[in-house]
Amino acid sequence: MNGIVSFFSGPAYIALYTYREGIRKKVLIGFLVLSLLVIFGSSFISSFLDPSSETDIDLKLIKDICVTAISIFGVLITIYISASVVPGEVESKVIYTILSKPVRRIQYLLGKFLGAQMIIIVNLLLMGVLFFMALYLRQGVMPTLLLWSLLLTYFEFLIVSAFTFAFSCAATSPLVPTIGGLFIYITGNLTEYLKDVEHRAGQTGQALDKIIGDIASALHAILPNLQNFSIKMQIINGQPNDPPTDVLIPNLILYGLVYCLAGFACAYLVFWRKEV
Amino acid sequence: MLATFKHLHSLFVMALIVAALAAGAFMNARLRHLRESEAFYRWILAAAVNERLFQEDSARDQDLDLYNRCAAVMETMPGFSGLPAPDDANTGELTALGTIAGNYEQDETIWNFARSAEMEELRQEFLALARERKLRFAQDIQYADAQAGGVNVFNLFFGFRKVAANFVWLEVDRYWHQGNTYRMITLMRTCVALDPQFIDAYLIGAWHLAYNATARMPDTPWPQREWHPRYEKCLGEKERFYYTAVDFLKDGIRKNTRNSKLYFDLGFSLYKQKLEDYPNAVKYLTEAVALPHEQYVPRQLFLCLELNEQYEEALAGWKDYAARFLDNPVVQEVAPRFIARNEGFLLENRAAELRKKARETADSAEAERLNNEADVLWEQARAVWESINDPFGEGRKMRMEALDMRQEGRYLEAIAFLDKARWEASDLFNDFSDLIIEIKQEAEIPLTISEKKAVIRESEVGLCAGMPEAEKEKRLRAAEALDSGL
Questions:
Q1: Residue B203: its pLDDT value, please?
Q2: H-type alpha helices, B297-328
């Protein structure tokens, strides 16, 4: 028992330190302020609409703009933080001091990853609370469906974060993994197109055509498909007690955790072989 | 030794990655199955709404064929038969699937059916047909639409298309204030194509079409109207707007089958208020009431039931409504008046039925008994109208007096009385005018020119361009019959 506690106490300290250091980053604060401004500003978008019409369109505008702002700024924060926590320490050479102490690489990496997750969660909560308040003040009822939407948004970020983190472990500066993270997010949203490639393959009857189809099929089966999380947009404007949504939410949470494990294992493999 | 450890460690981590990716692939497959089932489920609901309410069929699309095969599979599956339908469902002509889909509390059952192993073959066929764009009702279901591949609206903006729909709506609002109706309609369609769950776009769009776009248009004269085969009616520009609004809301209902606001607006704003088509108003308001709804929705249903002369249903509805909302002062003020109104109508109708039976019977004793019974009911009805004590009740009393005069053969007196009364009880103006015509025809008193025009206007005798020969012939015969009656 003591062994387990001492194994996890190291990562906990590193996570806390990473969080304290990361939350002060100016770029991060910039993203956060921008997102908060967009969320706050969405409340005024209804001024563009006919003030005499008694509709819920302004509410829908707020919901859609806020979820989109949280997704866009949230993923930028996720990528930036996940891409910079390890290369930043390699650049500043702090990593050598840490690894010279009785800290295993896995502990260091786990601490860094958990620290990055703490930053992402805190930022998401800050944006979510403002969104929650904007909706509550206008609607007068607790927007509970919003909580499910935010939860799914986090698990989408978790996948992007884990693979960006793996990228960052191979890099010495945050720039390359940041670009890599954006690439992961974009391709993750386009995985559905691989199925299209698979369907169209084999039309010419050439072997290469078939091979391309098989590769597309394999990639489609293995790669994470971030479009699965698109129901986060449906939830907030949809009807409560929708049976498919109730089944999809726990599956998507599990999906996020499984790919997070795959991403973290990749990160560990890369970092373990890294000469530091 | 160290090298071996490192090698083993690497292998272990790689095995972990492979295992995680394999688990990811498993989850991918599971989510794919769930999303396919979700698309299939939403398509089933849309097709079931079409079966239950619209009965539209297109030779080009294969929705109906696939739906019927799904319904046939359901009939054979244990556990899916004998499930409760909505209380007022007309289940006689519906498939079991259509009946179950009419009850939103059975959504879980439809979902379990859509994702069951027995439906695997039909589900794959659904996806293949969606890929070939042969399913009309699948075209705005995100996952099904994405099967077609290429660039489609659901892949645009990384799923942020709902925001784009909102900005398009701001443009619609701007065009509306500029009075640019035709541009507005196009953008409204774009808006709901980007976001098929944009309920307010359907509601406000239909309102603009039916009310605002037509506000300054005169009714189209018959010679300028054209036959519309889809609606089987002669329509001009103004009237086409009403039906475009109906279609717009029906489209919204297919894509959002569980939203009562769409059913309510179709039933109340369009069929009741604009088209005065009370059977259809009752049909869609009944659907709205069957779903989670606002408190005012049943009131409109009961009003339409009354207008559709379904007094017993309206009476039962009002009584139940009043009993459910005992602490609502508005309900407690309004409901008793309408309960009394429907009771009055029922008593009048029963009395009229008894008098008719008395006239038809050969037995004079029986006729006298029936007439006495009718008189009692007639007086009860008069007492009900007396108790209401509002302009409508006063009007109904006057109508009863006029009918008494008619009964006694005092036709001219009845006509004069009604002519005066229709200006005193404006709520019943049309009703009194119709009664004057009825009495004049019964007493063989010549109609005035405006009365003749009113008779022709109310009857389906108008001809218009593009009308099929059979319909034209039917209407000409009806016009001849009407003319001989006049």
A1: 93
A2: 297-307, 311-324
Residue B233, H or E segment? strand B233-235
Which residues have C-beta within 8 Å of that of residue B54, sequence separation ≥ 6? B250, B254
B218: left (phi over 0), alpha (psi -120 to 50) or beta: beta
Residue B456 has pLDDT above 90, yes or no: no
Contact status, residue A223 vs residue A191, Cβ threshold 8 Å: yes
**Computed from CA positions of residues B56, B57, B63, B64, in that sequence, does the dihedral angle turn out positive or negative?**
positive
Count of CB atoms situated within 10 Å of the CB of B52 = 22
Asked if the structure places residue B103 within a domain, the reply is yes
Q: Which of B248, B258, B263 is nearest to B300 (CA)?
A: B263
Question: What tokens were used for B209?
Answer: 């079409």
Q: Is the pLDDT of residue B114 over 70?
A: yes
Assign B225 to helix, strand or coil. Answer: coil
Residue B311: which residues within 8 A CB-CB, separation 6 or more? B305, B342, B345, B346, B349
Give the count of domains, chain B. Answer: 1
Contact B155/A192, CB-based, under 8 Å?
yes
* Percent of chain A clearing pLDDT 70 (strictly above): 96
Range B366-372 contact pairs with CB under 8 angstroms and sequence separation of 24 or more: none
Interchain pair A53, B204: CB under 8 A: yes
CA A91 to the chain's CA centroid: 25
Give B178-186's long-range contacts (Cβ < 8 A, gap of 24+): B181/B208, B181/B212, B181/B213, B184/B208, B185/B209, B185/B213, B185/B244
B354-387 per-position pLDDT tens digit: 999 998 888 889 999 999 999 999 999 999 999 9
What are phi and psi for residue B154, nearest 5 degrees?
-75, -20
Residue B66 lies in a domain: yes
Burial of A182 (0-12, 13-18, 19+ CB in 10 A): middle
Q: Which residue has the tokens 């409508």?
A: B392
Closest listed residue to residue A224, CA positions, set A178, A262, A181, A269: A262
Contact A97, A183 (CB under 8 A): no
pLDDT per position as a tens digit, A84-101: 999 988 888 888 888 888
Q: Which residue has the tokens 């429907």?
A: B342
Q: What is the residue-averaged pLDDT of chain A?
A: 88
Nearest to B30 among A71, A196, A251 (CB): A251
Closest A-chain CA to B202: A57
Q: Work out the average pLDDT over B17-43.
A: 94
SS3 B32: helix
User: What pLDDT digit, counting tens, does each position of B234-282 carry?
Assistant: 889 899 999 999 999 999 999 999 999 999 999 999 999 999 999 999 9
pLDDT bucket at B91, cuts 50 / 70 / 90: low
What pLDDT is attached to residue B312? 96
B-chain residues near A55 (CB < 8 A): 200, 203-204
Structure tokens, A11: 């990562």
- ipTM of predicted complex: 0.89
Asked if B166 has any chain A CB less than 8 Å from its own CB, the reply is yes
User: Is any Cβ of chain B less than 8 angstroms from the Cβ of A193?
Assistant: yes
Residue A216's identity, in one-letter code, is A
Q: What are phi and psi of B303, to 5 degrees?
A: -65, -45
Query: Distance between CA A272 and CA B9 in Å, rounded?
Result: 10
Residue A70 in tokens: 């949280």
Q: What are phi and psi of A212, to 5 degrees?
A: -60, -40
